[in-house]
Design a protein that fits this description.
Layout lengths: L1 H13 L7 H11 L10 E10 L2 E10 L4 E5 L5 E5 L4 E4 L5 E3 L2 H15 L10 E8 L5 E9 L2 E9 L5 E8 L2 E7 L8 E8 L2 E8 L22 E2 L9 E3 L5 E7 L2 E7 L6 E4 L9 E10 L2 E9 L2 E4 L2 E4 L2 E5 L2 H7 L5 E3 L1 H4 L3 E5 L4 E5 L10 E4 L8 E6 L2 E7 L7 E4 H7 L7 E8 L2 E15 L2 E11 L12 E3 L1 H4 L4 E4 L4 E4 L1
Parallel strand pairs: 17-24, 18-23, 29-34, 30-33
Antiparallel strand pairs: 1-2, 1-13, 2-3, 3-4, 4-5, 5-6, 7-8, 8-9, 9-10, 10-11, 11-12, 12-13, 14-22, 15-16, 16-17, 16-21, 18-24, 19-20, 20-23, 21-22, 25-26, 25-35, 27-36, 28-29, 28-32, 30-34, 31-32, 32-33, 35-36
């Protein structure tokens, strides 16, 4: 939807003549939002409700004149985003806090600026391209760009004939994100919007009037929360591990007292349980969400269980997505009850010796690891992302212990670096949640990761429009390459170690 709207709008812009200044556009947009352009308030505060994880919840957005942001969603699965002017953070329902980085940082800033009206302030760091354009339908459109570190996006904002924000779309690394007006959701007091930010889709109802919250009451600082966990000093750090037919590593854990086998997967942004097991303990349903898998998106319920125990780690009231995982049993060669993902890694230090089929987990407060080469990991979208160099090209790849391949290169990098031009490839395939997709397989001359350089490495090239490989990142690193390392995942300190 967003991609087609952006294309049509850009075509319309190209065929029309300038008829209003940028200052005029910002002034009428500010007036429609209740903002006095000549006496701007120090705080733009908005309120409303939102549909998040299938629940209608209260929602608050605060943006000050310097562009600092605080956005809060209440409900059973709360979510908070904060930007202090230099750095940004996100806190989710599990209590973890992670630094906003790369594309998600851009998405959250742009959404907050446009929904609050901060974009109408000349101090907003958007760079505008040319003069606004008036269409024959009464709509006004203008193009903008934003550079934020290594990320650069180009976008378009469109006002309706009533000067209200109708849509704003931006494109980064081949992926289109944005905000779309939903007139069917409008009321006399509120306007309806849908937003696509990172992998999230949220419906918002925005109060037309500004809130009266005061700037001194807003905390523009890192959220001070921590995911709850208990470590047993008496339990061994080594987990019970077995290797599936595919090479994936499974671990034994207890969920509500029942021993089950799980895939321990850094590529999973949440814990997942096979829906066939959810009736055994009748867990509380908290909401629902679409889950991206290799073959596309599937629907999942969010449920709260009583207790998860994994080696020395115990988590009370863990949240699981429940969906059909029967597609995994055949390839793995065994029954798998679920996947343990971000919610587990966010509470421990996990040491993978994949070549030995060994995994140890430790308390992040007491872990000591001599001789480890540490590097920063981006966890903005609940999956670790690190810097790599592929044939001289610097990119950002996810670390995915749920993948049994070595290197998977995704659409944005394939296009940006021309990786299929003249390269000898052969047909292949990849499978997981959501089914199987067709891929191409070939060799890359060099690949640098964790302080080491690999040559003539087999890689899969995956260019798809849906699923986990359509997330805008450059690629994926799986167990076949991780076998070469001892890998230390320390999400609490947002870093990955190589030894």
């Amino acid at each position: 939807m967003f991609a087609s709207h952006l294309t049509l709008a850009l075509v319309a812009l190209a065929s029309q003549e300038p008829s209003a200044s940028l200052d005029d556009l910002r002034a009428v947009a500010a007036s429609e939002l209740g903002i006095d352009a000549d006496a701007r308030p120090q705080l733009l505060a908005r309120e409303g409700t939102a549909r998040l994880y299938g629940n209608e919840v209260d929602w608050r957005l605060s943006v000050d004149a310097g562009g600092r942001i605080r956005c809060e969603f209440d409900g059973p699965l709360p979510r908070t985003v904060v930007f202090d002017g230099d750095d940004g953070w996100m806190s989710d329902y599990d209590g973890s806090v992670r630094t906003l980085a790369l594309g998600l940082r851009v998405d959250e800033r742009l959404a907050a600026w446009f929904l609050s009206g901060h974009w109408t302030n000349p101090t907003c760091p958007l760079v505008w391209s040319g003069a606004p354009e008036h269409g024959t339908d009464g709509r006004v459109r203008a193009r903008f760009s934003l550079r934020d570190g290594a990320e650069r996006v180009e976008g378009l904002v469109q006002l309706g004939s009533d000067h209200g924000l109708e849509k704003v779309v931006w494109k980064r690394r081949g992926e289109v994100r944005g905000i779309q007006r939903e007139p069917d959701h409008d009321t006399d007091e509120r306007r309806g919007y849908s937003a696509r930010l990172g992998s999230m889709r949220i419906v918002l109802w925005l109060e037309r009037a500004l809130s009266t919250r005061r700037i001194e009451d807003i905390a523009f600082e890192r959220p001070r929360v921590r995911p709850a966990a208990v470590f047993s000093a008496d339990a061994p750090s080594a987990l019970e591990v077995r290797r599936a037919d595919t090479g994936n590593l499974l671990v034994r854990a207890k969920l509500d007292g029942e021993e089950l086998w799980f895939l321990l997967d850094t590529g999973a942004g949440a814990n997942v349980l096979d829906a066939a097991l959810e009736t055994r303990s009748k867990p509380e349903r908290l909401g629902g969400i679409g889950v991206s898998g290799v073959g596309g998106a599937v629907d999942a319920a969010l449920r709260r269980y009583e207790r998860l125990e994994l080696g020395p780690l115990a988590i009370d009231a863990p949240v699981f997505l429940t969906t059909d995982l029967s597609d995994l049993d055949g390839p793995l060669g065994c029954d798998v009850s679920g996947i343990l993902g971000f919610d587990v890694f966010a509470r421990c230090v996990a040491v993978f010796r994949a070549a030995e089929s060994r995994i140890d987990i430790h308390d992040p407060e007491t872990f000591e690891g001599p001789g480890i080469h540490w590097e920063r990991a981006t966890l903005a979208e609940r999956v670790p992302v690190v810097r790599v160099v592929l044939e001289g090209n610097v990119g950002h790849f996810k670390i995915d212990t749920g993948s049994n391949g070595a290197v998977e290169v995704q659409g944005p990098a394939i296009e940006r670096w021309g990786l299929l031009d003249g390269r000898e490839v052969r047909a292949s395939h990849s499978g997981g949640i959501g089914g199987t997709i067709e891929t191409l397989e070939g060799e890359v001359a060099s690949f640098e990761l964790g302080g080491r350089r690999f040559v003539n490495l087999t890689a899969e090239f995956i260019d798809v429009e849906a699923g986990v490989h359509a997330d805008g990142y450059d690629g994926n690193i799986g167990l076949d390459l991780l076998d070469e390392f001892e890998v230390v995942f320390d999400y609490v300190h947002e870093r990955i170690g190589w030894r």
